[in-house]
Structure formats: C-alpha cells, structure tokens
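I hope you will forgive my troubling you with a question about protein structure. Could you please explain, in whatever detail you think fit, how the structure tokens follow from the sequence? Thank you for your consideration; the sequence and its tokens are set out here.
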Amino acid sequence: MDFGHENVRSAINEDRLSSLPDELIHQILSCMDSKFAVQTCLLSSRWKLLWTSMPCLNFASHHFVSLPKFAKFVTHVLSHRNHQIEVTSVKLDFHGAASQFFVRKIANYVFSHNVQELNVVILPKKHHEFPPCLFSSQSLKHFTLSLSSCFFAPCVTPKTPWDFPALTSLHLNEITLCEDNTYKSFDLFSKCANLKNLTLHSFFVNNVEVFDIITPQLSDLTLINGRKLEVINLVAPQLENLTVIDCSIKNPIAPPGLSTLSYRGFPPPQLSKEGFHSLNKVTISLSIYSSNMPFKEEDARKTINLLQEVHSARFLTLNFDIVECISSFPDLISHCPSPFSNLICLNIDSGMRNDAYKVNMSTEARNFLLENSPNATFIMELPEAPPTKAMKQKEAREKRKVKLVEDIERHMTELQASVDLGKMHHGTTEGVKDEFGYLIVDARMLIEQKMMLNEQMKESAERHKAEMQIQVDQRTVQTESGRPQIELGKVLVEEGMQMQVERRELPIDSHKAEMQLKGREAHTESEGVCAGLFARFEVCVQRMLDLVNEGKEDA
C-alpha cells in the first residue's frame, strides 16, 4: 500500500487522545490529583476548559509547599469550576492545621453540588475539631474520615447526631468521637436512616459510659480497637454480619437475621440470651492464655457460657486458648450437654499460639463440642514440635553422613573416570610401543639393505679402480703428463661415494631419534596417570574408614 507524504504527516500529527469524548477524558483525569488535571489546560484549546467540568475532585496538600498555597489552589478550582456540573466524589488529603473556614468552604460547595462520595484524610499538628457542617448532607452516600497517624493530635467530631439520611457506608479511622465527661451516653448515627455498612477502626470514646449504635438498616458492623470504651449499646434489627475486635460490648441484642459473628479479644463477651438463634458462621478467638499462670475457673465459666449462647452455629472456629481453657476444667463440662446440634464443621485454629503443639483437647471438651453433631467435620491441625537439642544433634549427624556418602560416591565416580582414562592412556602407550617396534624393525631392514648396497658399491668401486689402475700402468710411459688428472679423478670418485653413503644414513638416524622421543613422552605420561589413580584410591579408602568410625560412634 502506497502512503503519500501528506497522509503520513497527518497520521503523525493526529491527536487521538483529544478526540475522545469528554466523559472518557474526565474519567482519565479523575485518576490523578486535581493540580495535574488543571495543568492539562496548557495542552491545547481542546483541553483549556475540560478540567472545569470534572465530576471527581482530588485535592492533596503534599503537592504544595505550604498549606496556605494549597488552600488558595482549592479556592481557585472551586470558584472557576462549571457550577452546572454536579460533584460525584471528592477526596481531601491535607497535613497541618487547616482552618474550619477552609474545611467549611469545601463542605458547603460539594454538598451543594450533590456529592455522593467524600473521603477526608487529615494529619493535624495540633488538636483539631471538624466543623458541624461536614456531618450534614442530604446527598452523601459514602463517607470516609480518617487520621493518617495515631501519633499526632486528635481529631474530634461533633457530639450531636450526624445528619446523613442518604448515607449507606461510613468508615472512621483514628477519630475521637467524644471527649466530654458530661455525657453518660451519646448517639451519633440515629439520623443515618439508610446506613448499611459501618466500620469503626481505632476509635476513641472518652469519658462516656455507654456508646449507642442505633441504626435501623445496618447490615454490616465492624468494631476494631475501641479505646477508652466502656460499653457499646447496639440496636440494629437488620444486622447480618458483626465483627468485634478488642472492643467491649455488653449484652448486645442479636437481631433475628444475624448470620455471621466474629469476636476476638478478652474477656469473653456477655451475649444476650434473647437472640443468636440463626447463626451460620461463628469465629471466636479469646486471649486468655498466659505462659506463667494457669487458667482461671472464672474465665472457663464465661467461655462455656459464651459457647452456649452461640449454640445455633453451623460453622464454628475456635482458637487454642478456648480449647485448652475448657479442657483444664473437665468437671465444669462433664455434666453439660453439647449445645451444638446443627454443627457442620468445627475448626480449631492454631495460628496465634507459638506453642500450639503442646495443646491437648480433653475427652470432655471434645464431647462438649461435638457430642450432638456426630457427623460434623472436625479440623484440628497441630503444628510440629520444635526439635530438641538431641534431635538437632542427630539431624546434624545424619547430614554429615549423607554428605560423607555423597563425597565418597563423587570420589568413586571420579576414580572410575580416572581408571577409564588410564586404561585409554595405557592402550595408547602400548600402541606407541608396538609402532616403535615396527619402526625399529623397518630401520634395521633399511640399514641391512644399505650395508649390502654399500658392499656392492665398494666392490664395484674396487673393481673399477683396479681396471683403471691397469690402464694407468699401461699408459704411464706413454702419457706421463696425464698422471695428475688420473689422481684427481680417483679423489673425486672416492668423495662422491662417501657423500652418497652419508646422505643415505641421515634420514634413518633422524627418524629413529624422533621415535625414541615419542616413546619416552608416552612412558612419562603413563607414570603420571598411575600416580594420580593411586592418590585418589587412598582418598576414597580414608573416606570409607571415616564413615565406619562415624557409625561406630553413633552406635
């Protein structure tokens, strides 16, 4: 396919992000802080006013050098925003002592634009009180209020009931709900008529005898680490799931629909005898074990009473402290019938005890829990006991034995490989010796042939010399002047014969020396391989002797 230069340039310069609809761009901008969302106005004319119609606002003071500059930016955004667009969610995260005027201005704006979700995270440097207007909204459905660190000054909420008629979920973390000693009891959530999910985490309720949680539509309640809390009075007829961790609840009235109960802490809670008839899943973890003190009979009685109140549970999870406590007083449960007649599964959790391997469930405790539910699945996984000193020593010996055997096997393998290599070298040496022998025989044959040839040449030379001598003698008288030439010819003949003999002897002597050198090198290499084999054999024998001595010591 052929692309023109103009088409290519158009494809490169195309701004595909700007061509997206406003709703999708707003969704992308909602994932970043409002400071950076506002800065997108510099991209192009298409982006100049997009931030003004964003339904989601995220303000964080840590993007600014000071809290006043942060407040100025927030005021600028709220004043220049398109007021015809409602605000669906707001996240406000600031550090320092923000004025009530600043918080009130934000609350009034977002509540007037029908905000549905509000998340406030604060890190104050001193005692901070929230303005009452932050706790009154006709449109708010989800509210999260938290202190980012419990080591800073407290944040106090108003003492009057919060007015959130549309609120469905509320999450509070590290918040002081009351610090006035003029109240014997106080209520915050009675005007939250549609509240269904309430989570209070690390909350403070100071100098109040009773903390009322009165919510007609509440279905899920989680209470974690209520500090300086006397008693919680719970009135929630639609409650289905209740989680209580390190909080004191006195005689809570269980609604008919409560199906899940999770409790962790100490002492065992006193449950009302009027409810808890439709429980499906119950998890109870009591911290009543002390390594230096025996279990108390009073704690055992309270634990037994607690188990009897959750008799309708079908899936029951208990920790080891409960099992060990009631097992320590068999007389208290030997005559008590098992309260669990609908039990499907009983799980004994060992996760919170380092010495769970020591725990033993008595026959009386097992009968108390399972006698009326013989078909229930029983799960109790005891961890392995930590190894003793003798076990560790035995394990160390076993490891040494295994390592020694592995070393011996490795050395034996290396020895076998060395033996095979030695055999190969030995075979090579024998071959060199045989070849050397053949070469010697060939050299002897060549020498003998040369000697025979030399004898023949000498005889022929002597014969020719004699003939020439006769001819010389016959012509001595006639040609006296030719004697010097004849003598010179004799000398030349003798020198030629001597050079021919030397030339024939030279290759044979050189080849012989080369064969002797190769034979000596092969012999030296064979001696080195044999010495290595003997050394490795001695190492293996010593390893075997060490293993035998080790076995004798263990025996």
Q: What stands out?
A: The first strand starts at residue 56 and ends at 60. The longest helix spans residues 389-475.
